Amino acid sequence: MRTVFALAVAALVIAGHVGLWTSDAVPPALKADLTRINALAWGVVLLPAGGVALWRRAHRRRAAEAARRAPRAP
């Protein structure tokens, strides 16, 4: 389900950029500015999200290793 959601978001973003860049109503300088703003916004969202995902995976792995090593009560 996550993959479908990610693909849908990516398709909408790409479609938005294609629509923006093929429009004659928007000046080229504004197109470039909007594209840069969008790229920065995605960077601000995705970089921390990726960091949190890596952190979470590391902590889950560490917890699973600790659970395997812990002696079990009879």
What do you see in this structure?
With 74 residues, the chain is mostly helical. The chain is 85% helix and 0% strand. It is built from two helices and no strands. The radius of gyration is 21 Å and the shape is elongated.
Q: Which SSEs are present, and which pair or pack?
A:
Blueprint: H1 2-22, H2 28-69
Main traits of this protein?
single chain; 74 residues; mainly alpha; 2 helices; elongated
> Which structural category fits the helices and strands?
mainly alpha
Cα(first) to Cα(last) distance is 40 Å
Radius of gyration: 21 Å
Number of strands: 0
Instruction: Estimate the global geometry from the Cα principal axes.
Output: elongated
Please give the count of helices: 2
Helix content: over 70%
Task: Quote the average pLDDT.
Answer: 90
Specify the biggest β-sheet.
Answer: none
What order do the SSEs take from the amino end to the carboxyl end, as H and E? HH
Which segments are poorly predicted (pLDDT under 50) over 5 or more consecutive residues? none
Content of β-strand: under 5%
Summarize the structure.
The chain has 74 residues and is mostly helical.
